[in-house]
Amino acid sequence: MTSTIPQGGLEFSPTADGFTLHLGGRLLLQHSAQRPCLSVGQGEADIEMFRGNFSIKDNLHEKLALTACAIRDSDAGLCVTLSRGEVAAATLMIAQDEAGRLRISVNNHSPHHNRIWLNLVAGPEERIYGCGEQFSYFNLRGRPFPLWTSEQGVGRNKKTLVTWQADCQENAGGDYYWTFFPQPTFVSSRRYFCHISNSGYMCFDFSAPDHHALAIWEPQAELCFDTAPSQLALVSKLSAMLGRQPELPEWVYDGIILGIQGGTEVCQQKLDRAREMGVSVAGIWAQDWEGRRITSFGKRLMWNWRWDEELYPGLDQRIPQWKQEGVRFLGYINPYVAIEKELYAEAAAHGYLTRDAEGRDYQVEFGEFYAGVVDLTNPEAYRWYKEVIKRNLINFGLDGWMADFGEYLPTDTFLHNGVSAEIMHNRWPALWAQCNYEALAESGKLGEVLFFMRAGYTGSQKYSLMMWAGDQNVDWSLDDGLASVIPAALSLAMTGHGLHHSDLGGYTTLFGMKRSKELLLRWCDFAAFTPMMRSHEGNRPDDNWQFDSDDETLRHLARMTGIFRRLKPYLQQAVAENSREGIPVMRPLLLHYEDDPQTFDLAYQYLLGRDLLVAPVHQPDCRTWTLYLPRDHWVNLWSGEPDSGGHEVTVDAPLGQPPVFYRRDSAWATLFATLRDA
Amino acid sequence: MTSTIPQGGLEFSPTADGFTLHLGGRLLLQHSAQRPCLSVGQGEADIEMFRGNFSIKDNLHEKLALTACAIRDSDAGLCVTLSRGEVAAATLMIAQDEAGRLRISVNNHSPHHNRIWLNLVAGPEERIYGCGEQFSYFNLRGRPFPLWTSEQGVGRNKKTLVTWQADCQENAGGDYYWTFFPQPTFVSSRRYFCHISNSGYMCFDFSAPDHHALAIWEPQAELCFDTAPSQLALVSKLSAMLGRQPELPEWVYDGIILGIQGGTEVCQQKLDRAREMGVSVAGIWAQDWEGRRITSFGKRLMWNWRWDEELYPGLDQRIPQWKQEGVRFLGYINPYVAIEKELYAEAAAHGYLTRDAEGRDYQVEFGEFYAGVVDLTNPEAYRWYKEVIKRNLINFGLDGWMADFGEYLPTDTFLHNGVSAEIMHNRWPALWAQCNYEALAESGKLGEVLFFMRAGYTGSQKYSLMMWAGDQNVDWSLDDGLASVIPAALSLAMTGHGLHHSDLGGYTTLFGMKRSKELLLRWCDFAAFTPMMRSHEGNRPDDNWQFDSDDETLRHLARMTGIFRRLKPYLQQAVAENSREGIPVMRPLLLHYEDDPQTFDLAYQYLLGRDLLVAPVHQPDCRTWTLYLPRDHWVNLWSGEPDSGGHEVTVDAPLGQPPVFYRRDSAWATLFATLRDA
């Protein structure tokens, strides 16, 4: 029997019939015959997709708790073999890597065992954060979180009428864990992180008081753990491992990026009107630059990824003109090609699309139209699509685009690399991000041109330049309205992605929802305190209040974009810090106040950089707002009143004055003070 | 190795690594190392109840497929030991009983294995019926059916607004399989039945094309199979085994039993008015005979099971008077005692109530009031409650009652017999039926006094004199309205209970639902062609159209009760046949036309006795109706038109003329013909 091996914080101690494993003093894994830490088994996944909405069930054939334990040393580290009679066995290879991280490889011995259940030790008071972009919960304790990239759901709460209506229509209502950006990575309040390199379906269940139950639908798994003396250091270590985002182009901070559709002249007119009313405009984002189609859902795009000269006459001339005026033009792309058009024909001719079981090009139904899936695992196809981005987007003159989708890879399609689509499904968004990233990098445009994504997975930290929160409802709901953007940004921050923004005003306009003026204004107030302001008309623009629906709105926008613009140096510095040290721009309070347990569950307020505390108003008809201030020397941004924190505080919160405090001792205090008169 | 044993139709054949088991030529069980028929494992049930609505999950620790097979003869029959290495094993004891039925006992060898999964062989075209009272499906193929007695749900279809509203309020919406009367018993179109004697939670999954997956949350199980040359013979064999219902009191056929509440004079006035308008009245059913309380749900009863002299002054005199006039008086009881009153005090004093974990009397929340659970496993308590029934109900003069509830036994209560409430939960309704039955039998009142129940389980066939379909919505929904009563009656018929009726007009009046006049009239038309007519005011009487809401309704009722009354000899004979031969009164068409596959899935039409085919109109605003007529010599009851069947037919279906055909060659044809002029 191998004896205790303390090794840079790794402590493995055999016991009578098992072992304990500590890292940096934290008990992570514990095994005994009575309480085995590992089960293995066999299941058959039953995965149905309809328009990005997944129904996932496991047809479980067997599950075996591995009770017996044998330990030996090996060149690759400690080798722990767990078994159950002659019936099943698996090996845990336990080692530390050069950076001092704990690495555990789990390997099933039986080829037909394709399920792993691993229990980590948990404490009753422990909090868990991360798992990608989580819209409903910041602290994930108390619930299971299936990790599968998909639509985020419309409503996302079975007790709302909107969710029920969306469910009835196309199983689209979703639930608290639905997300475009899941990730098998979490941070514990015990100051360790856990990351799994796999990409098959997983479910992390944080319900039990004494353990975290990690279910992995693969025959082997690679886990990685690390600890740090503080949450901030831990998040920094995590992002060092996963990769960090480069800085944003400098022009992003110059004002709002206006979401406009409808053609060159519409853009010109709306731009003129906005500027005339004093709005700071950094760009125009026209997702229909490549044409559009009308479906029952609303206006949709023509997925052929090249300038539509008919809808946007003279755009090639107008882009440089706008640019000279300080206004960038941004477009849209996604990893699918509509079957009616020439990009599809080209991809099909070269065999660049994913296949169906009969070897034909797989066609995905996207709501009254079909598209092929560019096979990003085929190096030729990947290169080709990168060239499409370079030629049709970058060289055409776009200064940015929404790189939409990524979460729809059907599990019954066949890929060039021979890996099951069930395993590639989660990896797809990161692959899609990488494709965009490389197109930029190879064009020498990193730091100048921007793309932003909603879908993500491990790898997106490195390749996705900016996340956006996907498709919120144009409403006040906690799970899918304005509010949901905040835990989304914070959970992503705890997963190593530090750049986040949202559709200003929300997107999904269905089931009688219509964006009110108040919602647009509150969202504007919120967006001014994020690293990027970008509006969206929504899927049914005519039903929604828009930035130019009246003069008051435009004046409001003028004021808030002015504030955003004044924050430019502060934001730039925070974004640089994120790039350099992996400390997110929108931060959970606990990153700086982890000695105060009150901050552990704050899902609806955040720090913007180190020195601003923001608590967006996310309910209608409020003129005051209550938030929590940790102990520090705070100043109310609008009233100038000081507050030393350590308590809840209720502040005046009229439209245009979102609850914001700054640190009295901030190096930026003078700048912040000027905003009071904005 | 034991060789083939053909034994009265039982054929057991060892194979290279397993066996096949046939009964009467039907392949029922098949085992090989590759496709093991049995898995065992361990789970921990997580069962939550709120007002009879259950949320049930299994925390599954392990599941092992038993691949190896060893066969030996024993005194008790064939002994097949299935195992998986040294890790798990179970024994199948296979034998035929004196009646030629196949008996299989499954026994886990390991004491900690408390789950059994058994796969039976299925054919792709096979239909499955039964599993108790199923409201949404008659043919159960294609879905899993959890078997757990509970409320039936309000709406019972996640795509209806009512269901969603009920779910939001108290998880009360239910689903397609929710039922008061589940039973682990089914009949296959391959002409065999399968019955399991256990009572723990089970789930029978009929989704797979090649097998039926039976999950049983107990360490052992007792299965029983039999075959017959026809479905009719099979159902008769099944009811011979399970027990049959005695004949109904003769007075039941004399007219409607009017559901009235509000006191002696209200009953008198409504009775007078009904009779004055020509309604045939067999009885008054006053559920509030023992007093009432008002809650937010509507009018509820005072659960103290004795005449409330204040609300019903002079009732002791009025009952014999009404009886002389041919009108019986029926009351209400259930197995709970309200904590405010003396029955509870008496039960508590004697220790007759079930207990909580601390040994105190368990109190169940029933919606703004609490009640104790009479412990029917305590022989003293059981006897006492029988005496309550005899003294307070029978001796007081009631000629019948609703024996409500039975499905609410909480799983965290503790019982006198020491058996876990998780195991007793399903048995409770049958125990409750037996208590009522014995009270009647011991009073010599069987065949004279009637009780009817909604909850049931194995055993209810013998002890529950009459079932009613529980609480339908006062609406037209397929899953919870008028329509749902028909598959309920038919599935119960295939489970061996042949007497069924429903609340005429439906019951649940919530979420804006209000009973329309048309619904009441259609329900009346339907009820006239069932073995019992009984109206209900609903839980919010003032919101509902009632039998006496206008003269036209009363005239309609007069006509339909007249028709019902004229059917008396025919109904009596059908009920006698049910009692004697176990052939249900409301019969699926396939019982008499099993050569016609078109009849296999008919969920919304039935045979009443042998000679009437009834297809109730269950949608609003219809004046014609389409039904299927199997090949036979049929006569349209209302038009007299003949039809030789073998096709769908669309008939006129005005109010008061529900689609009904009779067999030209019926011995009752003359009687039926007279109804044309009714």
CATH topology of the largest domain in chain A: TIM Barrel
Rg of chain A, Cα atoms, Å: 25 Å
The amount of helix of chain A comes to 10-25%
Look at the structure and give the mean pLDDT of chain A.
96
Strand order across the largest sheet of chain A: 6-7-8-9-17-14-13-11
Kindly report the name of the CATH homologous superfamily of the largest domain in chain A: Glycosidases
Q: What is the architecture of the largest domain in chain A at the second tier of CATH?
A: Alpha-Beta Barrel
Largest beta sheet of chain A, briefly?
Answer: 8 strands, antiparallel
Number of helices of chain A: 14
Residue stretches of chain A low in confidence (pLDDT < 50, at least 5 long) are 1-6
The span between the termini of chain A is: 71 Å
Please, what is the oligomeric state? Answer: homodimer
DSSP strand count of chain A: 39
> Strand portion of chain A, in percent?
25-35%
Shape of chain A, please? Answer: globular
CATH uppermost class of the largest domain in chain A: Alpha Beta
Biggest chain-to-chain interface with counts: A-B, 18 and 18 residues
